[in-house]
Amino acid sequence: MGGSFATGMDRYFDNLFYVLENVRKTQWKSMEEAARLLCSTVKAGGDIFAFGCSHAGLLALEMYYRTGGMALINPIKAPGLCLDVDPATFTSQIERLPEYGKLICDNNPIKAQDCVIVHSVSGRNTVTVDFTLRCREKGAKLIALTSLEAGKHNPSRHPSGKLLCDLGDIVIDNCGCVGDGSVQLEGLTEKVGPTSTAVGAAILNALMVRSVELMMQEGLLPPVFMSANVEGGDAHNEKMLEKYKSHIYYMGHRR
After folding, report:
1. Are 14 and 6 spatial neighbours (Cβ–Cβ below 8 Å)?
2. Percent over 70 (pLDDT), the chain
3. Cα dist. 21→16, 157, 160, 202 in Å?
4. 3-class DSSP state for residue 254?
């Protein structure tokens, strides 16, 4: 696209478009299965949760209380894992703690009929694996969003030797490269321009669109938020929060 005079910015966009198209070509089946799982979870009266550590957790935040998003996405915001602590390196240490993932799971109302979306690019850290294993023990269904290429090159830090990609009922590959940086600049050892957040957000928003489409086909009221900045948005969102309040945990109440 940028030719021989392409800047780093051109190359980043080229890489991003390439990864997105690769996802579309190779992950369609898994994404369709994931969308159907989300739809069936809602139809059966189950709950939906989303979890990730540090930057991976940004996608859980992207999905909830979101204009054009599903009202039913409950983000799991664990202390120390939301990029809300200083020094920032503390988050890297916390996500390697044994047993913390189990505590996170046990302090959230995750049940057998629920669906949990877990995002981790490497899928190797202890908290993510412990959390996912505990969700499986509870009988919840797991949608794992990860990088299969990263998993091939980086061993698990969990005693089981398991990676996130080994544990999902449905595994979606973000088709990113090892280390996430996508642009190699001349004279710089480190790659720059991560793709996982942009691509991951696109994947999960596509799942939401498809799952809402499937819900409509099932005759369900689509649990979708409008923008609070358009006329009628507040009133509509209040109706959504009221109708689905028994499945929403981010409003400060519990069933």
Report:
1. yes
2. 97
3. 9, 31, 34, 11
4. coil
Task: Answer positive or negative: Cα dihedral of 194, 224, 142, 133.
Answer: positive
Residues 6 or more apart whose CB falls under 8 angstroms from that of 142 comprise: 115, 116, 118, 132, 135, 136, 167, 168, 169, 170
Rounded distance between C-alpha atoms, residue 22 and residue 32, angstroms: 16
Rounded CA-CA distance 85/34 in Å is 33
User: According to DSSP H, which parts of 65-179 are helical?
Assistant: 89-94, 100-106, 126-138, 148-153
83-133 pLDDT, tens digit per residue, is 988 999 999 999 999 999 999 999 999 999 999 999 999 999 999 999 999
Domains and CATH numbers, the chain: 30-244 (3.40.50.10490)
Distances (CA, A) of 23 to 126, 176, 199: 27, 9, 8
Which residue has tokens 């664990």? Answer: 78
Across-strand partners of 116? Answer: 49, 142
| Cβ count within 10 A of residue 149 | 16
Angle of helix 8-26 versus helix 196-217 axis, rounded to 10: 40
Q: Would you state the structure tokens that stand for residue 194, as one six-digit string?
A: 């991560």
